[in-house]
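Q: Structure tokens for this one, please.
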Amino acid sequence: MAKQIMTAAEKADRDAKKAALKSIVATKKDTSKYVLKNVLGEDMDEKDYFYSDNSPEEKTQGSLVPSYFNKICGFPVEREDLLEVFSKIFHPADNILFYKSQKTEVYTVIVPLKFSEVGVEEDAISGQFQRHAISFINEGSANLDTLKMKLKRVAASIRYSDR
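A: Here is the predicted structure, written as tokens:
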């Protein structure tokens, strides 16, 4: 096999491309400071969940999502049995989010603005969103029947007028 010899210019060009790629990857990681996914694992648009008052501060922040979002709300629930119960109460097409705190047995239901009580009439501020917390005593103690009961209570508070 013939070994290809690389000139100094080609090596420099290759190194520059690698550096540029690393920079792009690092920038993407820095700007995606939050995870916003529905129960089907699809990425969701922050504008559908977080109120915008078009303030100058909002424009300089670059995102409607509060910096504490994933620290407080956690990440999308991955347990199949919990997702199955959730999908029986909330239709997946409504894109209601279901999150679990990382350190505690607290689940958060995040409602899209079109179904929520967040808006101008309620004097909402930029970044505000409607969420409902469901907690259980111990880690791993989420009882499916209790979860179902609590999710039904949350469902009763959601305005489905824009369905």
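A few notes: The chain has a mean pLDDT of 76. The CA atoms of residues 100 and 107 lie 4 Å apart.
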